[in-house]
Amino acid sequence: xxxxxxxxxxxxxxxxxxxxxxxxxxxxxxxxxxxxxxxxxxxxxxxxxxxxxxxxxxxxxxxxxxxxxxxxxxxxxxxxxxxxxxxxxxxxxxxxxxxxxxxxxxxxxxxxxxxxxxxxxxxx
Length: 124
Description:
The chain is mainly beta. The protein contains no helices and eleven strands.
């Protein structure tokens, strides 16, 4: 199994920025996998925020984060990165990294097999 570890969460004021990172704890993530960030706010459904297709072929973003969030992969560090700018209070959530070999919607959580434990982002 793949063990994923997220980092970079924290508390910021509206308009601020954060950089989340997700790294596998136990093995190298082959570039043939799709990697994504999901988030879950209290009382809300889990939402796909951004996804990076296999071999970096395509990026998908939720409408709510387009133009503000950027997903990328740091190949040297074998890490998935989420750059979050112009943060809003509604971005407050636990953010999770996910990895899988998928054929369907890259922002559908059901398509991902491996998950991290999350990192909290709070925007006030």
